[in-house]
Amino acid sequence: MAQYAAAQDDKAQGNVDIVLTAMRELFADKDLTAIDRYWAEPYIQHSPQMPNGLDTLRQVVPNLEGFSWEPQRIAAQGDLVFTHSIVHGWASDPVAIVDIFRLDDGRIVEHWDVVQDIVPPEESANGNAMV
1, 4, 22, 108: most buried by Cβ count inside 10 Å? Predict the structure, then answer.
């Protein structure tokens, strides 16, 4: 079960709700019209695998096979929402991803991510789970 940090204010909580809804509708439901509702141009992408702009999302999402985004922790401050998730279907094996979304006027306008292969706790130096 996901552990969500309390947002510091109503705006931050509203942004968490927007990100969760946007990601569910786009990636789980594969509803490309979600891009028009929850994202806005200019969309600045910091992921090294993707160019700026929303056309990339429109092209990538329909081709994702077996994709699931499972947020485990969420924190928000002002216009930023941070998620720590287990993701299937982005790479050949499940990965841990920290996503950072910046919202402007209720729409996602900027994104950063850090992607790591998941190492089982029994194989890590500290015995702790990554996610």
Answer: 108
